[in-house]
Automatic annotation (TrEMBL):
<dbReference type="Pfam" id="PF01551">
    <property type="entry name" value="Peptidase_M23"/>
</dbReference>
<feature type="domain" description="M23ase beta-sheet core">
    <location>
        <begin position="151"/>
        <end position="255"/>
    </location>
</feature>
<dbReference type="InterPro" id="IPR016047">
    <property type="entry name" value="M23ase_b-sheet_dom"/>
</dbReference>
<protein>
    <submittedName>
        <fullName>M23 family metallopeptidase</fullName>
    </submittedName>
</protein>
<feature type="signal peptide">
    <location>
        <begin position="1"/>
        <end position="19"/>
    </location>
</feature>
<dbReference type="GO" id="GO:0004222">
    <property type="term" value="F:metalloendopeptidase activity"/>
</dbReference>
<keyword id="KW-0732">Signal</keyword>
<dbReference type="InterPro" id="IPR011055">
    <property type="entry name" value="Dup_hybrid_motif"/>
</dbReference>
<dbReference type="InterPro" id="IPR050570">
    <property type="entry name" value="Cell_wall_metabolism_enzyme"/>
</dbReference>
Length: 400
């Protein structure tokens, strides 16, 4: 997850009386600028956004240390800065013009508006291209990282390089694309590539763990819902390739508050996504589907040396190799799976696999090691049944 908190401390020493009006401006990188106008009575403080785009909104928490100054506001002081115009904060008046005076300012800020109210009538698009189907590998209140302020976050299991599309129109307010490393280590928490898009209601969409150089928009761009914005990856604090998506707004502690959202899916126009369910963009005339599993999601795959499934749809193996019978259910459940494996034209007793699907797995699979026995060369057949109903027959060749 991305934590965009910024801190700047400014010190100024003032002696006696200001002889003439004098304006200074100090900016934090490309985010917030403090404007001080000094005169014989004291200092007038204003804040503006560095970026002059009228859509830019930042929430700021301001603190001050004062010696020989008085003001009519108390600190910490909260303010939302919208657009390019400076926001007046206060006048710091010299208490005794014959004495030295000291002041320092510090502030924290986060993009977005902490007073924003999410438009719950919005139905978000799935943040990937049409034709892609993927599972939610961690949903709301997920036990790995989706708790506390990040409780309403969603992780989509997408391979590295999958196109990422905007789920809602808005304005690009921040991006990062320089990182290349990913892993489940705390030092990588701040090293994920991301895109932050501000919405019309002041909330923000966060698309995180993108691939290195996987951002195709820039700060200041206006994007439409469904527009290509980048490519998924495996950077930052992650257990594997996926796209992290959340809608949030800043809170008064300058952390984020994630917001529950509804999506347009194959099930409905307003769907709440669930962990381990598979989702895709709705297809008119086809969806919603009623099956628990689609025929195309029953496959023979190769088992890699790292014991990962690869080359799904493979139709030829060699003696001594391993293969997987893989099933991806649209909806998780306790389905009973039975697989009978035989060799055409040979009288070997069919190999039988049977198990009950687990609800907390992204996919179901059982692997088989092909013995290095020349008698097993031939055309193999795997008959797959789910809950007693035949779903698919798979064929593949085993060669010497």
């Amino acid at each position: 997850m991305i934590r965009l908190i910024f801190f700047v401390l400014y010190f100024f020493l003032s002696f006696a009386i200001y002889a003439e009006s004098n304006v200074t401006e100090e900016c934090n990188q490309e985010w917030i600028c403090l404007i001080q106008t000094k005169d014989e009575d004291g200092i007038t403080l204003s804040i503006r956004n560095y970026n002059t785009n009228p859509q830019v909104t930042n929430s700021v928490l301001l603190n001050a240390t004062l010696v020989n100054f008085k003001t009519d506001i108390s600190f910490p002081y909260y303010v939302v800065v919208k657009g390019p115009s400076p926001v007046y904060i206060t006048k710091f008046v010299l208490d005794d013009k014959t004495k030295n005076a000291f002041h320092s300012f510090s502030f924290l800020f986060r993009p977005g508006d902490w007073d924003s109210v999410h438009d719950d009538s919005v139905s978000y698009l799935l943040p990937f291209a049409r034709g892609i189907r993927t599972k939610v590998v961690q949903g709301y209140n997920g036990s790995v990282t989706h708790f506390g302020t990040f409780a309403h976050s969603i992780d989509f299991g997408l391979p590295v390089g999958t196109p990422v599309h905007a789920a809602r129109k808005g304005y690009v307010t921040a991006t990062e694309s320089k990182y290349s490393e990913g892993g489940f280590r705390k030092e990588l928490l701040s090293k994920a590539n991301f895109i932050i898009i501000q919405h019309e209601d002041g909330t923000l969409g966060n698309y995180a763990h993108l691939m290195k150089n996987g951002v195709v928009v820039k700060v200041g761009d206006s994007v439409e819902a469904g527009q290509l914005i980048g490519y998924s990856g495996n950077t930052g604090y992650t257990q594997g390739p996926h796209l992290h998506f959340e809608v949030h707004k800043p809170n008064r502690q300058l952390d984020v508050t994630t917001i529950p959202t509804s999506f347009k899916t194959q099930y409905s126009e307003r769907d709440t996504l669930k962990e381990y369910f598979m989702y895709w963009h709705p297809r008119p005339g086809i969806d919603p589907i009623k099956a628990e599993i689609l025929e195309e999601d029953i496959q023979i795959c190769k088992l890699s040396p790292k014991r990962e499934r690869v080359e799904c749809g493979k139709t030829a193996f060699q003696l001594g190799e391993n293969f997987l019978v893989s099933l991806e259910f649209v909806r998780p459940g306790n389905q009973k799976i039975e697989v009978d494996i035989s060799i055409e034209g040979k009288s070997f007793e069919p190999m039988k696999l049977d198990w009950v699907a687990e609800k907390n797995l992204a996919f179901e699979a059982r692997y088989v090691s092909i013995p290095n026995n020349p008698k097993l060369v031939g055309r193999w057949k795997a008959r797959v049944r789910v809950n007693g109903e035949e779903k698919k027959i798979l064929f593949f060749d085993v060669k010497p």
